[in-house]
Amino acid sequence: MLLARATRRIAPTPAGDTLYGYARNMVGMEREVRARLRAASILPSSHCMPARCRRSWRHRSWTSPRTVSEP
């Protein structure tokens, strides 16, 4: 049981406190990872990747690949 109810009051049990602590840590780690990935530069990869895979920073979308059947 994660919550204990006493008349009008609801309080977390020791197991609920433990789970809440883990959940807070997980949310914090996710935020940290997202911030680090957002700050990472992809410029070095733009020299190694083919043009159709490069990110178009002007339009904030991927460039469309060319079809194989072009003349």
From TrEMBL:
It comes from the Bacteria. This is LysR family transcriptional regulator. It comes from Burkholderia ubonensis.
